[in-house]
Amino acid sequence: MACNMLATLCRILVGTPPEFPVQPAKSRPMHTSSSHCLNRRISTFATMIALLLPMGLAANPGKPLYPVMRDSVAPADNSAASRNPPVFLWPREGKSTVFEMEIAASPDFSGEVIKSPSRKWCFHVPRRKFAPGTWYWRYRSQDGTKVILSPVYSFTIRTDTPVFVTPEVATLVANLPKQRPYMLSYGQTHQHVIETAKKHPELVAEILKAGEEAYKRPFIDLNALDRDKLGIGPWLSQYGPEVKTLPALTRAYLVTGDDKFRVMAEKRIDQCLGVTLKDLMAEAERLRFVAEAYDTFHDSLDKELKHRMLAAIRKFLAEQYAWWPGNREAILIENHFWQLQISGFFLMALATVADMPENMEYLNYAYDLFLARVPTAGGNDGGWANGLPYFTVEYATVCDMAYYLHALGKVDVFSMPW
How far is C-alpha 150 from the geometric centre of its chain's CA atoms? Predict the structure, then answer.
């Protein structure tokens, strides 16, 4: 009954069609925590209804509060840019459509025209500061022989518009340290990490406690865990602690240099590589841990294990990039993608770019998408739209990914207005 109530509230608020897939309450067990969470959500929705009905929502019950896919451009026509240069976004089209956008100081695009590369991305991040005044932009979409030119849009750069110019991805990669590890050490040498750790005994004690527990933890065959049969809660209670033994061992080795953690971590790497998961979030997290281990133990890993680690990472990156551009950036809100998938994708590519040249394209996409869309649930006022619990699960993107860009790539992301 609670599920049906929630579905009804969703339909009232965002115009969800009647076929919105919600299992009847009788057909699925509900844990106490899940029931509590659902009750809180119903209460939240009820409050939203009470607030929104006076605004005229009842007159348009089928009109969504926001579309699932982007249906407008940014910056909007005749608008003031929130930063200089602005980020340009537009609606997606067909799967094989490629786009090219142009920016000029005149509405007829005479004189200098700034062009984006021709690609599937539905966004563009310029790498130059624009002079104050009115600017004009448009984009061209091409699918085979079919070419469509958008209307011309204008935007204004004020003298006080915040300036935020970022370097090209090639500069970001060139700034990466030449020694390993550089990921978890944020560019510092391993010896420097060990010496610094001695000054923070309480933090090291926490890391070592997790490392020792991981070292002693018996192995579990993750492939034997049937997620559909167990249910998401019981599955996560077994999967989570098991897969997180690898990062616990990696971090324990990093702060101590104790070889026993390295030896056990290499065994856990082998276990991580042998598991097959259906969940894309879990896959991104699992392979992020593998990429961190690849960087941390790079000089001691045997050739065969190194090859398998790179093969697993290469497969994930290629499969995701095959369908993300022209799709993911056009979805206005997609929590799982922004929580672990994009950050995992970026960190895997960053850790292995020296051995996988194709990662330059992947890094370019993830880096520019971060600049164009993060934080999806926040804004320049510093707010956060979907609650503190979702901020914590999006930490890997809004904090980890940001700090890697800052510490390793020397990108001044913390000057972003948000």
Answer: 29
pLDDT in tens, 7-56: 444 444 444 443 333 333 333 344 444 444 555 555 555 555 555 555 55
To the nearest 10°, the Cα dihedral for 308, 312, 317, 322? 110
In the three-class reduction of DSSP (H, G, I as helix; E, B as strand; rest coil), residue 249 is classed as: helix
Other residues' Cβ atoms within 10 Å of the Cβ of residue 64: 11
Task: Examine residue 201 and say whether the peptide bond preceding it is cis (omega within 30 degrees of 0).
Answer: no
Of 88, 207, 200, nearest to 140 by C-alpha is 88
3-state secondary structure at position 378: strand
Query: Do residues 173 and 363 touch, judged by C-beta distance below 8 A?
Result: yes
Lowest mean pLDDT among 55-59, 113-117, 302-306: 55-59
Helices of type H across 2-145: 2-14, 32-52
Cβ pair 405, 172 in contact under 8 A: yes
3-state SS class at 92: coil
Whose tokens are 């948000």? That residue is 418
The rounded distance, in Å, linking the Cα atoms of 271 and 265 is: 10
Residue 393 has pLDDT above 90, yes or no: no
Q: How far lies 94's CA from each of 99, 101, 214, in Å?
A: 11, 17, 47
What does each C-alpha distance from 253 to 61, 197, 248 come to in angstroms? Answer: 57, 11, 9
Q: How many other CB atoms are found less than 10 A from the CB of residue 273? A: 16
For residue 74, CA distances in Å to 86, 198, 329 come to 9, 49, 13
Note whether 376 and 141 are within 8 A (CB). no
Write the pLDDT tens digit of every residue in 44-53. Answer: 555 555 555 5
Q: What is the pTM of this model?
A: 0.84
